[in-house]
Design goal:
three-stranded antiparallel β-sheet; alpha/beta; 14 helices; 23 strands
């Protein structure tokens, strides 16, 4: 059973099945209506150091983790040849959608860019805009909100805190920038107190619709979600919400979402303190919006490559134990990566043909499989995030969605404009053995089952598609041009 901890103001974690730690991933239905409440899918952020300078790999190893800085991460997913060819996402805009925003994001982004030698963005603090700079902006569609910590007199600081989203904001903005250094970024905020009964999904979908209607972005990344069962069987509200994704497809906007942070289940209600905090549904299920067939769902891995050089030769000596226990394996399916099969959506036609060896054993009803692709997600092999003067190692499929959004932004730029709905093209690549082997790193180790001992093999990462990492993780220099070709029918 999960248990809630609060060892420090900078860290709020939830222990899941003794195997993963999750911060703030609390999904709850409202008392009066059938809509659930979205929560950030950031998982277990670990404070490493304070100050402007990022921690060393030794600092991260000292807390039994390895940490990824932009340079090695770019090398690990073979992004550097794209940069060398002048493809960094210029002219493309990625919108990231988060509640509340962050009071320090402009300064945080400036220091992140400075420390890692990334291009500075027009809109950062302490930077004078120059021609050719990528642009960072903040859009408050309903209202801007002061994302500050709750007062000391708050009855339940955890449920009243708006600053729980600040790490999510820093992660989303900084890591889109890390992957697509010249792409523009819009931080789209909503005034949503997701644990207080305010209905966050309509506001978030309205904000995304505004972005679509006004042509503000070519890519939307959503690091948030709620388990399908939290809709209480009421599909009508969900179908109303997803009209935004129908509109995105019509307007040629790519929409991505994190697949979730609870393996093959999700949290069933607003968390309370004590031993019964944040219980999981006692059966396999997937989260929406990642489960929507019009959304590209991004699952997660432990990235066990060399975090100093980015070489994909596995480093099975450095922490964490998840890498040490899988010698010679460069990427392992994350135990908490959201994945499985929808109880709402039928299997889309693009999933009818999968690579050889794909694992669909849990698909009893011919339904939508989640996720579509994967990227690094575990905080045990997490990315470095600068937030409010502190360097954190951050995990969750909240990492995977914005980083894959950066890959999509580069593909859009190579295409000369938006590629739009990606899933048919991704699975077209997956159906061609030679293209699939070239474009994806197939992850064949790991399991995200919460319910059986030993774990259910139907939730194991295998050759081909699986309900942990989807088709696998991107070999970006090969995937990007091939994705452009596949979208155009070749």
């Amino acid at each position: 059973m999960a248990r809630a901890l609060r060892p420090a103001a900078l860290r709020r974690v939830l222990s899941i099945a003794g195997a993963s730690l999750t911060l703030g991933s609390w999904w709850a239905p409202a008392a009066a209506v059938s809509l659930p409440l979205p929560s950030p899918l950031v998982t277990d952020y670990q404070l490493v150091t304070n100050g402007l300078m990022p921690p060393s790999q030794a600092d991260c190893n000292a807390v039994n983790r390895r940490c990824w800085a932009p340079g090695p991460y770019q090398a690990a997913y073979n992004l550097t040849p794209l940069y060398a060819a002048g493809n960094k996402g210029q002219g493309i805009t990625v919108a990231v959608v988060d509640s509340f925003g962050s009071q320090t994001i402009r300064a945080d982004l400036n220091n992140f860019s400075t420390q890692f030698g990334l291009p500075h963005m027009c809109g950062e603090d302490n930077h004078t805009c120059a021609a050719g700079d990528p642009k960072f902006s903040i859009l408050c569609v309903q209202a801007c909100t002061d994302a500050k910590a709750p007062p000391a007199t708050a009855n339940n600081p955890g449920q009243e805190s708006k600053n729980l989203w600040e790490v999510e904001v820093s992660l989303d903005v900084e890591w889109v920038h890390a992957v697509a250094p010249l792409a523009n970024i819009i931080l789209v905020t909503t005034p949503t107190a997701e644990v207080l009964g305010v209905q966050g999904f309509p506001q978030m979908m309205n904000a995304e619709q505004y972005v679509i209607d006004h042509g503000l972005a070519q890519v939307i990344s959503q690091s948030l979600g709620a388990g399908e069962p939290t809709f209480n069987g009421a599909t009508a509200p969900l179908m109303s919400l997803r009209s935004t994704f129908v509109s995105a497809q019509a307007h040629n906007v790519s929409v991505l979402a994190s697949s979730g942070d609870f393996g093959n289940s999700n949290v069933s209600k607003t968390p309370v303190s004590g031993p019964n905090a944040a219980p999981l549904f006692p059966f396999p299920n997937v989260g929406w919006p990642g489960s929507d067939p019009l959304v590209t769902s991004v699952g997660g891995t432990y990235l066990c490559a060399n975090a100093v050089t980015g070489s994909r030769v596995a480093d099975s000596v450095s922490p964490p134990s998840n890498c040490r226990n899988n010698p010679g394996v460069t990427e392992v399916g994350w135990v908490a990566a959201g994945g499985g099969f929808s109880s709402v959506f039928a299997k889309p036609s693009y999933q009818n043909t999968l690579p050889a060896g794909s694992n669909t054993g849990a698909d009893a009803n011919h339904t939508r499989g989640v996720p579509d692709v994967g990227m690094e997600a575990s905080s045990r092999t997490g990315v470095l995030v600068y937030d409010g003067g502190s360097w954190l190692i951050v995990g969750g499929t909240s990492v995977a969605s914005p980083t894959f959004a950066g890959v999509v932004a580069i593909a859009d730029q190579v295409n000369g404009g938006a590629l739009g709905f990606l899933n048919p093209a991704l699975y077209k690549i997956g159906a061609d053995p030679s293209r699939y082997a070239s474009d994806f790193f197939d992850v064949t180790t790991g399991n995200n089952d919460n319910f059986k001992t030993p774990r259910d093999p139907n939730y194991t990462a295998t050759t081909g598609w699986d309900p942990v990492t989807g088709l696998g993780t991107p070999n970006a220099a090969n995937l990007v041009p091939d994705l452009v070709r596949a979208v155009h029918g070749s």
